[in-house]
Amino acid sequence: MIVTRNSAAFRYHGHLASSEIDELEYASLRIFECRRGLLEQRGRLGFVRRCHGDLHLANIVLIDGRPVLFDAIEFDRNIASVDVLYDLAFVLMDLIRYGSDAAANRVLNEYLARTPEDNFDALALLPLFMSMRAAIRANVLLTRLDDQDHSKDIKKQAQAYYDLARRLICPSPPCLVAIGGLSGTGKSTLGRMLAGAIRPPPGAILLRSDVMRKMLFHVNEIDPLPVAAYHSGTAETVYQKMTSKAVRILEQGCSVIVDAVFARESERSAIRSAAGNMNCNFVGIFLTADLETRTKRVGQRSGDASDATPEVAARQETYDLGAVDWTIVDGSGPPEQTFDLSAALFASDVQPTKAWFTP
């Protein structure tokens, strides 16, 4: 197995602490044994297939603003046939290695939005997959130490990958973040800003009620729905499905951000209870903004999953929100300000740090 071969190579190179090598191997094999059944099931479902095989950042180039992959493992079909998430894990790990946590999170969320639902039941494999990829990079670098002119720099790089492998194999507990607020308060923008900064890597999975509703009606994300699709019965179904999916992700050890209006006390209570039942940390944020700001933002939207209009935003002013027991955050200012106000709410074990972000 790759884990064992990595450990043997680390011991052979002699540059790393033996006790740490043993700890990494033990943790990796423990997860492997725990997830062996899932790995085998993934193979039967067709998720193990011919992939790129070596998808680190040095094998990706931007051409005309689009990522182009090269130097794939084309010489051996068996070596290149891996779980698709193991292929993805290489680029996720490398982005994290170079401090682009938010970019790694965006890649993961964009990938999940375009792939079969079964991938949500395999997110528990990511810590093992990303750790193995980091260990492989460390070993590859250590084989180059004969080049004395660059040996110091190479050893430093190898150590960084090795330390990352050890960190990724022991992820911190996941958390559930719920972001509520009327249309135009900045929920989705805040969710994207927070997602890449929340532990464990590669950050939180984003769930939007607007997207969930479009999926329910089997339409494209940006296709408008009729008013009838927004009656109370449908809303209840959307919130139930969103809560169920959040629990499904938390069970895999990944953090989740749920983005919805959450205008009713019952909706807010249900998502908080879901976190309590999972025994995970919960952060509830309710964004506010004046009607003028909300109307302006909603009116400027294009290519978005939300069907809210300025008229909808105005109508929401009459909502009876009841007792809001989440932290109320002013979302009327710039996104960075809302981010800073929200980031201060997190416990130290999941405290986010500001990272690269593109709306």
UniProtKB/TrEMBL annotation:
Give the InterPro entries listed for this entry. Answer: Cell-binding_unc_protein, Kinase-like_dom_sf, P-loop_NTPase
- State the source organism's domain of life: Bacteria
Q: One Pfam family for this entry, by name?
A: AAA_33
What is this protein called in UniProt? AAA family ATPase
Task: Say which species the protein is native to.
Answer: Candidatus Afipia apatlaquensis
